[in-house]
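queue> pop job 88
queue> type: inverse folding (structure -> sequence)
queue> payload:
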């Protein structure tokens, strides 16, 4: 029989908030309540009858509360099959009470880790009895309802109201699936904590909080986001964020992080910067970023690491863009920017701080560290007779930061803290350089004395020769080609400075 009446319930939760209406409803439905420790006291204090688990098991809570529900009379009450004659005979023989509903809220393991608590405190927040109850009740979803998190209290209460304390098989199966989602996520968090040094060669990711997206990369593809976007962003205005928006947002926040507290503004399109500048004010940085490629800026993703004020909002308001990300906005800026109803305005609440990234591939996954290496003064090895001037060094490091976050093969041209042009995602470095030069000249930039960054070494001297003829005066690249000397010789013969960093920054 698919429909089952809830006649008894075991409640054992860490957090009590949200529990009151459920307790009241179960009492109204004459459901026999069993409970443990603090939850039992909480129910009693509401004046509702409840039986202590210890009265069933005839064992007290022992070992400092580590063992409370781990007993055959508890798990037998959950796991016995209501349509199995042998199970029912054993239930009666051993005086095992039936338990039709289990409500569990696990110890807050992840929150305890995040709090910076010591290991002893963290280990004590590894729930044993709760996890066992969840798995047992979920396994027997044919007969038992399992509520594995306070997140589902509202759904249970609705079910109790709608069906008068009865449930259908589909209801119980849904709660069981949620329960195994809860337990697998919990176990993954514990594994990640204990395996922080990577000693166990296993990759586990558990991301909860499904956010359906309008579609995937294209309209004919379905898409969803799993994770907690609200941890990093607060959306102040605009339409729902799309799949492609999310990819651009990650690219944007990783790029802007490179500039620390130095005022910077970037415009991205398809994960690559088409404009980026540092300046004294946000409005100046925006204007210089926009100059780099006003065509590609249309429909782009905008980001800054400083508050957007009214003057900056006025400057960018005429541009059609998808998203603007900033740590804050003035009221005057919001009044202007909210005039376009679909424009997405995001407050970035915290800096990106992830260490690992992964990608599904060939039925599995590849995992690597994020490229967290930012080239700085200490990495620069001057390999030419001419050394770059201090202003050129700043431009080289600026260009290197942009280069690191641009799709390979890439060449970045920069001057005075401004991206002049980029060659993006080309199959040869020469093509990338020619693309960058052509674009810079198209938008009226004089490349004389500009800096060039490459994400990887030059296998031949052709790139430095092309750069020289365009007026570029300083080059930064990883080095490492067996033919490095050919590029060095050309630079020496033509009064170009070049530095090696020793770090490649491919991005695929």
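queue> result:
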């Amino acid at each position: 029989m698919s429909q089952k009446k809830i006649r008894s319930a075991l409640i054992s939760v860490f957090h009590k908030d949200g529990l009151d209406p459920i307790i009241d409803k179960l009492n109204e439905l004459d459901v026999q309540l069993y409970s443990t420790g603090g939850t039992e006291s909480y129910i009693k204090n509401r004046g509702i009858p409840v039986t202590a688990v210890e009265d069933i098991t005839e064992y007290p809570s022992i070992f400092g509360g580590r063992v409370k529900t781990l007993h055959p009379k508890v798990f037998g009450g959950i796991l016995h099959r209501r349509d199995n004659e042998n199970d029912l005979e054993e239930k009666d023989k051993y005086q095992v009470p039936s338990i039709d509903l289990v409500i569990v809220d696990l110890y807050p393991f992840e929150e305890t880790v995040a709090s910076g608590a010591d290991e002893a405190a963290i280990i004590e927040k590894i729930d044993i009895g709760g996890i066992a109850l969840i798995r047992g009740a979920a396994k027997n979803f044919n007969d038992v309802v399992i509520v594995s998190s306070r997140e589902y209290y509202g759904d249970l209460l609705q079910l109790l109201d709608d069906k008068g304390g009865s449930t259908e098989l589909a209801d119980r199966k849904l709660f069981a699936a949620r329960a195994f989602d809860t337990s697998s996520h919990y176990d993954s968090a514990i594994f990640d904590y204990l395996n922080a040094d990577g000693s166990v060669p296993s990759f586990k990711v558990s991301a909860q909080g499904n956010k359906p997206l309008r579609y995937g990369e294209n309209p004919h593809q379905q898409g969803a986001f799993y994770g907690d976007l609200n941890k990093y962003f607060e959306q102040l205005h605009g339409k729902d964020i799309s799949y492609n928006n999310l990819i651009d947002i990650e690219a944007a926040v990783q790029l802007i992080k490179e500039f620390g507290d130095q005022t910077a503004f970037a415009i991205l399109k398809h994960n690559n910067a088409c404009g980026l500048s540092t300046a004294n004010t946000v409005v100046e940085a925006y204007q210089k970023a926009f100059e780099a490629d006003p065509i590609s800026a249309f429909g782009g993703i905008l980001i800054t690491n400083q508050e957007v004020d009214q003057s900056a909002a006025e400057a960018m308001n005429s541009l059609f863009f998808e998203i603007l990300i900033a740590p804050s906005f003035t009221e005057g800026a919001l009044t202007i920017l909210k005039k376009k109803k679909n424009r997405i305005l995001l407050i970035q609440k915290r800096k990106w701080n992830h260490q690992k990234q992964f990608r599904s591939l060939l039925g599995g996954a590849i995992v690597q560290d994020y490229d967290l290496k930012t080239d700085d003064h200490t990495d620069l090895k001057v390999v030419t007779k001419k050394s770059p001037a201090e202003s050129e060094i700043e431009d080289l490091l600026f260009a290197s930061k942009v280069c690191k976050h641009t799709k390979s093969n890439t060449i970045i041209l920069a001057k005075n803290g401004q991206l002049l042009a980029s060659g993006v995602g080309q199959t040869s470095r020469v093509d990338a350089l020619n693309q960058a030069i052509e674009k810079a000249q198209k938008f009226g930039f004089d490349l004389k004395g500009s800096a060039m960054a490459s994400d990887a070494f030059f296998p031949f001297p052709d790139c430095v020769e092309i750069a020289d003829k365009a007026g570029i005066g300083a080059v930064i690249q990883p080095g490492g080609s067996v033919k490095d000397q050919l590029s060095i010789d050309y630079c020496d013969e033509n009064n170009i400075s070049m530095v090696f960093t020793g770090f490649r920054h491919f991005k695929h």
